Amino acid sequence: MKRNVLRGVMTEAIGTFFLVLTVGCVLFSKAALAPLAIGLALMIMVYAGGHISGGHYNPAVTLGVLIRSKISWQRAVAHWVAQVASAALATPVARYLIDPDRVRTLSPSVRATCIALLAEFLFTFALVHVMLNVATSSDHPHNGFYGLAIGLTVTAGAVAVGGVSGGAFNPAVAIGSAATGLFASAKIWI
What we know:
The structure is a single chain. The protein is mainly alpha-helical. The protein has one domain (2-99, 106-183): Glycerol uptake facilitator protein, CATH 1.20.1080.10. It has seven helices and no strands. Helix 1 (2-28) packs antiparallel against helix 2. The chain is globular and about 45 Å long.
């Protein structure tokens, strides 16, 4: 049993690392196809590790799976620690790889903060909703589309509101992004 827990935690760490690394690299390089790259990275990691850990790579998703009683408290806490730790490691690596000249920190005004909060809530909700209904539902136990659906949900959200809120939809991404100045630390609660 301990081996399976460790394997799941390591899978969450690796998946979150590469998701947040991709976010950092595309944002630092100002890549035109950033939303697509981020959605594809998530999809790839979900397919690679979903069968091992559930492929959450996001503390909000882990919370949704915990509420649905598909994961224990102990495993959820272990996933959260792995997700946040790997996110904190990934963004400095992205900054080193890309070496941006100047980072534009996202720090919205009061009105824009309310809009960003709503945008983040709605698309985080959509992501958790999709994850729960395609990856933890017994209605379609042998589906092959769950990774695509999850990755495209993030892509759609990033295209739709990335310019408004930063398009994190993931506390681990927000923490990692704040660590390197992409998001203002004072606005991390959004």
